Input
Amino acid sequence: MKIAAILLLPLLGTQFKPLPPGPGRALAETACFACHSADILVQQRLTEKQWTATVEKMMRWGAEVKESDKPLLIKFLATHFGPENRFTPTKTKPVR
Output
């Protein structure tokens, strides 16, 4: 029975949640989706200060974000994926 239940779960890496609409969405998709699925973003609960540090770190690691676009990206992320975020994770198959 355990094996049958595992087979019903989606494969790891399946994208479950789209980003919410709003100013900065396209920028987040362009800047973040090169390395991450939307699921990595939607599960976060970071403050604006934490998102600023995260975006700056990702830029140092190669995320293509113009300095002039950084405030819009941070605002989008902090607005939608801040401490009040009510994300519910989706179960996936274990990696073997």
Remarks:
- The chain has five helices and no strands.
- The chain has a mean pLDDT of 84.
- The CA atoms of residues 40 and 66 lie 22 Å apart.
- The radius of gyration is 15 Å.
